Amino acid sequence: MGAARSVGRAGDAASLAHYENPAYYQRTYSKRKHDIAYYVELAGAVSEVLEYGIGNGRIALPMARRGVRVTGVDLSQPMLRDLEARLARESVEVRARVEALRGDMRRVRLGRRFQLVIAPFNVILHLYSLAEIEAFFARVREHLSDDGEFVLDVSVPAPEDLSGDSGRRYKGPPVRDPETGETLRYSEVFAYDPVRQILTVVAEFRGKDRQYWRVPLTQRQFFPAELEALLYYNGFDDIRFEPDFASAPAATDVDSLAIRCRLRQASAPHPQRRAVRKY
Ligand SMILES: C[S@@+](CC[C@H](N)C(=O)[O-])C[C@H]1O[C@@H](n2cnc3c(N)ncnc32)[C@H](O)[C@@H]1O
Predict the structure, then answer these.
(1) Does any ligand 1 atom lie closer than 6 A to the CB of residue 61?
(2) Predicted local confidence at residue 3, as pLDDT
(3) Rounded mean pLDDT for each run of 10 residues along the chain, 279 residues in total
(4) Which of 123, 127, 134 to mutate to test the pocket of ligand 1 (most atoms within 8 A of CB)?
């Protein structure tokens, strides 16, 4: 059976389905901690952060506990509700430091600037077309102070996920439904659109009574050099790669790529002019 190819449009149902069950999200990524430490350290140098795709606060809450004010934007209602529930269990001080609003990262305009703007854990993989990516980068430029930093991270495309055996089913270990406690059989079907560079992974959960749920996750695949060019030609400069969140040189096997950049200053040469050499 081939997995259905997603339309791949920012904010569509397939781009948000993976975030419908925050308890499952929390459990699935409970071992992912290195990125939290990375962003908490970065935020330590500033007093305020704007986080695109704040989700249920996996990164925002640890930042707020360290005294940083966090403004977050996210489109998923379930994730934002879960963030609210988590905030209710925090101290008054931490609660006061986090402000989250529901909106599309391509559109929300806050009318103020931040020294640190972040888009952690594959947030931009939910932007599929050039127009969507450029609209988001325009919002980042509007919200970043002149001396500020924009930091994001993406999963580096894995050749095995993009290979020709699209539609093949991979069986994973059984999972427990975090709400009912039921043990469910778990499998994934991968489909890759090599032209639009969109990977769709359909997770299938099957219960005892043959009931099943399919949850798609559509992610644009960004190759590092492509992302560097997109950032550069959208007004960012001083672009630095930090493979797997370390500032050490890239290893051969890189899972996540953190990217740091700044706004290109008005005095810097226009990128197209810079490329032309005079002899
Ligand atoms: C992988 S999660 C990352 C959440 C959080 N930053 C973390 O590290 O756990 C991606 C987040 O992006 C949000 N998202 C997807 N498309 C969006 C859009 N168009 N505008 C705003 N948020 C979006 C999802 O709802 C989800 O919470």
Answers:
(1) no
(2) 39
(3) 58 90 91 96 96 98 98 98 98 98 98 98 98 98 98 94 77 84 89 94 87 90 97 97 80 88 83 48
(4) 123
Per-position DSSP letters for the chain, written without gaps between them: -PPPPP---TTSHHHHGGGS-HHHHHHHTTT--HHHHHHHHHHTT-SEEEEES-TTSTTHHHHHHTT-EEEEEES-HHHHHHHHHHHHTS-HHHHHHEEEEE--TTT---S--EEEEEE-SSGGGG--SHHHHHHHHHHHHHHEEEEEEEEEEEEPPPGGGGSS-TT-EEEEEEEE-TTT--EEEEEEEEEEETTTTEEEEEEEEE-TTS-EEEEEEEEE---HHHHHHHHHTTTEEEEEEEETT-SSPPPSS-SEEEEEEEEPPTTSPPHHHHTPPP-
pTM: 0.91
Question: Ligand 1, from 76, 109, 139: best to mutate by most atoms within 8 Å of Cβ?
Answer: 76
pLDDT for the residue 4? 42
CB 82 near ligand 1, within 6 Å: no
Report the alpha-carbon distance of residue 278 to residue 57 in Å, rounded: 50
Which of ligand 1's atoms lies nearest the C-alpha of 76? 25
Please tell me if the CB atom of residue 79 comes closer than 6 angstroms to any atom of ligand 1.
yes
* 75 in contact with ligand 1, CB cutoff 6 A: yes
53 lines ligand 1 (CB under 6 A): yes
Amino acid identity for residue 265 in this structure: Q
Neighbours of 117 (CB within 10 A): 23
